[in-house]
Write a structure and sequence with these properties.
Length: 331
Amino acid sequence: MPPEQEPLVRVRNLKKYFPIYKGALIQRHVGDIKAVDGVSFDIYKGETLGLVGETGSGKTTVGRTMTRLYEPTAGEVTLDGIDLFSLKSKELSQIRRRIAIIFQDPYASLNPRMTIGSIIAEPLEIHKIARGREKEERVNELLSMVGLGTYCVNRFPFEFSGGQRQRIGIARALAIHPDLIVCDEPISSLDVSIQAQVVNLLEKLQKQLGLTYLFIAHDLSMVRHISDRMAVMYLGKIMELADRDEIYLRPVHPYTQALMSAVPVPDPDFAMERKHIILEGDMPSPADPPVGCNFSTRCQYAKDICHEQDPEFREVKADHFVACHFAEDFL
């Protein structure tokens, strides 16, 4: 991104710990699950930042903590310079109009007792954006924007497929005219053919409305398709952040290299030549992360310092950030 452009969203040293208690009658705080542990990144207006990583890496927790669905343990998130974590309930309700979220499960995220029209109209009513005839027209407009007709208004969620329900979820997110939409794995529970349709719809809406996305997913090929930049997470920390093509073609961090080696490619000759990196062992528990670098227990290049000192998340070349003691060796 151009250095003169100010980011829409700044995330600095974001942490979210879930406390662990023991004891039946008198509970004792015995530890924490460090779901997100010191994450920093920027999101610029009009771009899509892809956030990827293995299951359990903390991707979803980042999105939910940013939007204050989870209360943060520490850190700072600003939207156009406004500190979201310092806002009280009344101020927070006003700023929520600028942030929306699309959830992973299109079945669980829609109230089965409400009609589709009521589901989409609910944020309009809560934020007092539209009422009466204006509200009905806005609901119909939103349904049209996501490729559904006005026939949906009086129907219930169980009458629709997973892909249609996700379109309804997108329409609900768009209702408040948000500046930022957190897409929390919006395609992971859909069929492959439907995934492409939903991603194409998100891209179309972004161009049409000037939207900004944080796109959370574990499908690396789809993230490359939709994202401008990518951040790779592992065990609550960001390992690497750069332009999407830079990440795919010239990954620096050993974890990113392993992820990219597993992405299927259509060219069989290239697939045969490419080195596949097999990670040994499982991801450690976020309740007991390793000392030093979080990836040190599975890294084939780990040295003594990796098991002793947490690497700094630093810029190793223009707009390319890596958390590795020996990042320059992989450039």
